[in-house]
Amino acid sequence: MKIAIEGCCHGELDKIYDTIKEIEEKQSIHIDLLLICGDFQAVRNTQDLQSMAVPPKYRSMQDFWRYYNGEKKAPVLTIFIGGNHESSNFLVELPYGGWVAENIYYMGYSNVINYNGLRLCGISGIYKSNDYNIGRYETPPFTDRTVRSIYHVRSFDIYRLKQLKENTIDIVISHDWPRGITSYGNTTKLLQYKKHFYNDIKNNQLGSPPLEEILLDLKPNYWFAAHLHVKFSALVEHNNGNVTRFLSLDKCLPGREFLQVLDIEPINPTKINSNRLTLDPEWLCILKKTDNLLNVHRTHTYLPNKSQQSSMPTEEDIKSLHEDFGDQFEVPDMFQITAPTYTSEKSSSTSINQQQKINPQTELLCQMLGIRDPLNVVLNRTVGASMPSIDDSNLNTNDPNQDDDKCSISSEEHDHHDDLNMESTNIHLTTS
Q1: Where in the chain are the domains?
Q2: With respect to CATH, is domain 2-427 assigned 3.60.21.10?
Q3: Contacts of 286 (CB under 8 A, 6+ apart)
Q4: For residues 196 and 158, is the Cβ–Cβ distance under 8 A?
Q5: Which terms in the GO cellular component ontology are assigned (predicted)?
Q6: In 276-322, which ranges are E strands?
Q7: What pTM value is reported for the model?
């Protein structure tokens, strides 16, 4: 199966799809799937644009709204996770994932889905120590703080991922790099292009500590990431003999290595050769078994250790879920426009309720599983009730992970190649 991997999207869907078309024509191949590793920027209208955590001078409508309103359709099935430059006004509606446009699927805060036998795991956002152990309390309209804190990875999402069985995930997609990943690749070459990484690498502070744990726990075959705007590859040999092939790519700009095509086959090929996304029964069971731990306040999230409570699904859990779903796990094609689009917002502001934030896709999944939508819980809190909070005065302002754009502001031109033993196609965008 030929899969295209894209680094940071930054709203450049047209250029990415044009590049894929060019590859297919030049090499006489068909690309089955596109994976985007964050900074997707699903901006539907100008209100969404204001909820994107980027300096005002860099805010642009870009391409997505044309795919959202149906003017264009993604030519290849596209799956993405969130980064640290997203339009959270829209994505907050889909905490468990869902379609954001026809043929474009967002994986939510964390998720596992299946495609043609491939088991894909997604983790959105970046790590910030100050927000890691608190609840998902953010809701539109966002403040200067919450427009950023909303894309910070939470311990609850990592806890859920840790309930998965190891050696069963084909691909993990994240925005952040796992901490310590540079130890498994050519660090000397990396520092030639990113000299300012030196101290963080030396002090083992480059990357996400929770993602390092997930890497070592799940031992996936592949791990794709972005965020740091540089191409870097690594081979991680695990203690059980498994190997994870890590690859991070650049952002979509002329001359950058932002896209690569790989031939990937699943660990356990499915008997059903389906070109449709399917929900993952084990992951759905994990969502059910951990719903009681959901925290939607700006307070500490208390999660059980293995001796206190196991949230790993049993065979009986999975059997029961198959019965509840009637063995039908295809992701339903139920995308619908839930907000005014850029071209119509002036003329149709009364035809669509801009304040409606409960997405029908999330509502259906929650009903099927008997779980809660975190956004719905927040929106239904008593109006005027005081919200528990944490004391900002004790936050560690010297934490090296506090600057969202640390190690990603400067992105030098580079022309180096990955060292992974993968059958692949390296892509440079050479036109504006």
Answers
A1: 2-427
A2: yes
A3: 160, 163, 164, 311, 312, 313
A4: no
A5: nucleus
A6: 277-279
A7: 0.89
